[in-house]
Sequence to fold (89 residues):
Amino acid sequence: MKTRDLVDHYRVAKGYWFVPHMFGFGVTPVTWQGWLVTIGFAALLVADVRFVSDQIAQIGIGVALFALFTMVAIRKTEGGLGWHWGVRK
Fold:
């Protein structure tokens, strides 16, 4: 794989915050907005586990946070979400 292919993979059009993983399933934040959403999701998930005492409530809040993060990531991912094997065309 050429370095240029790798650099181009992590470049997104205006309005997108994430790119799909080069191999496998998932997304990677590539703008400050994407990183802010990702760090915010992680911080809220840690706060949920740390400060919510009821286990059922923890699970419910965690699932809701995961669903919200996933919806944002899908909407803001250039090229869509799916299984990838190599450089985007």
Observations:
- The first helix runs from residue 3 to 9.
- The mean pLDDT is 85.
